[in-house]
Specification:
7 helices, two-stranded antiparallel sheet, mainly beta, 21-stranded antiparallel beta sheet, 48% strand, elongated, 511 residues
Length: 511
Amino acid sequence: MHIVILKAIIRKFVGKKLYITFLIIFTLNFQSYSQEMFGLTLGNYSGVNSIIANPAMMTHQHKFLDVNLVGLDVFVGNNFAYIPGSDYNMWDAVNTRQLPTYEDGSNFLYYDNEQLKVMSTSIRMLGPSAMMQLGKHAFGFSTALRVYTSGSNVPWEMPVFGYEGLRYKPLHNIQFNDHNFDFQANVWGEIGLSYAYDVFHYFDQQITVGISVKYLMGYSGGYADINNVEYMVQSDSVINITNMNAEVGFAIPVDYNNSDFPDSGPTFKGSGIGIDIGAVYVKRKNVDNKRFKRPCEQRYEDYVYRIGISILDIGRINYKNNAQMHNFNDVGVLWENYDTVSFDNINQVVSELSNLFYGDPDASLSGTSMKIGLPTALSIQADYHFKEKIFIGAYWIHPVRFNGHTMRRSAQLAIIPRYETKQLEFSLPISLYEYQYPRIGAALRINFLTVGTERLGNWIGAGNLDGMDIYFSLKFGLEKGKCRVKSNNKCYNLEYGYSDKQKLKFKKTRR
């Protein structure tokens, strides 16, 4: 019910254009699936990007030095609103074709069902990052900007009210009783340091552990944690809330008194620490050691299979600047003529709500700081070297939540066949989101550029357009076993740092 009230308030407060933006965020994103960039993080040329899936994977790369220049991952999807695939697809959007218009004047339709909604929209901009391996050790540095929205157990009628408005008579005079749903939205920057170490390296077996520690800079955040709400929309101007228990917090770069953007306070409203930890077991094809004199002399060690486990995004952001937290405990109100109410700033909004429920404009304010947890998840990765250049990978990720202030990461299962060489890599991820929604994707790497999607159907018009997904990365690196000869002396040991094929050629020449 908080979202119903909030949408009504925002429509009065910010006008139609910004209300539509808000509607897109909180209804078009229902049941979206944050994706894991399978074509960018799991291959043997993924380099520094491998730390996104498991920091221990840094010592299992073809390159001993890898530098990411820039990358972007954008994913939006939902199980509420859609455009029929026959009317529009992502290529139409790229070509700026106008959206279709339907009978009610809207540009999309919605699924008419009573299924609970969840959401998890992810945008990740990969900044300058790098990793370097020195024998059993690997070191990484990474930067990123992340935007994340999530929600759990959202009642089905709320996005319908958001789409139709409270004037929608089929939902009038129905007693709704909703429980245990929440929303979070967060924008933050990350600066991370990563380290991996081969703790066990004996004959053809190897175990590596890794950790990433990230300093988090919170730019903006907010949440709504609703324990229960009982309400009835009696008409387009009367809402009867008989009982509600909820907590709301926000810290955004807006002056709450006059709506100036940005406000005069610090750019970052909060800070925190994030941690990724992981381990990888490798069954190697050959018995080898890691002796080398120069970093380029390190050899890539091929494997039969490898299995990794990691816990990602442990931590939270503590917002202390321009933050407010409001509690509404066992409250109710008959809100009449709400459609005549208007506001000029955010403080007026929260004061009016507090006055409605408590009869006191300051009673709901319970704190001037708040915390939002990162989208923590447990992940398992597996990869089998099927044949020379053919690999078959598998990936499982499951959300771990501690409270209603923690962002939720979507559950995923995937099988990822791929073709991999130095110059070319192609993968075809077959995924199951939230254990029930099948998706087929594709990713292509040509030398230093990787482009991929995990929702290929949205690009070819197969099925309804209820989201979009695309990612890319631009990077370069130095490959293991590729050293320049330092001397013309015939006695110089040229075998160091060369591949098996090159060494065989060298031995034949010596004969």
